[in-house]
Amino acid sequence: MTNSFHSLLKISTLSTLLACDCFVTANGIVKDNATGKPMEGVLVKNLLYSELGSKTNADGEFNKVEIGREKGKCLEFNLEFSKDGYLSDTIFIKNSQFQTIFLKQKK
Fold first, then answer.
1. Which of 24, 66, 82, 107 could hold 88 in an S-S bridge, CB 3.0 to 4.6 Å?
2. Number of domain units in the chain
3. What whole-number distance in Å separates Cα of residue 100 and Cα of residue 105?
């Protein structure tokens, strides 16, 4: 394939994403409440779906993207953060600002 075809494909994909009025993204970091250290392996799951979710990386970072509509409305973006030994936390994403989530250990 030619470079011009790849460029056209990238532009087409980008324009499709930008044209959608329901493009929601959430990114940030999950930290231990007591130590302030980033937490690897925290499950990040959108509660609207029965998806498996994804886990934070070695630096405690997560990135979730939702595109499209469901039943004529923009998708809600309620994220649950959970890890064994910690209390789960749920947040509603209102905008694409960087999020910092602190999880507390179970007693």
1. 82
2. 1
3. 16
Residue 61 is assigned to a structural domain of this protein: yes
Q: Is 18 left (phi over 0), alpha (psi -120 to 50) or beta?
A: alpha
Q: Is 85 exposed, middle or buried (0-12, 13-18, 19+ CB in 10 A)?
A: exposed
Does the pLDDT at position 43 exceed 60? yes
Q: Are 19 and 11 in contact (CB under 8 A)?
A: no
CA–CA gap between residue 47 and residue 53 (Å, rounded) = 9
What confidence score (pLDDT) does residue 11 get?
47
Instruction: Name the residue range of residue 71's domain.
Output: 24-103
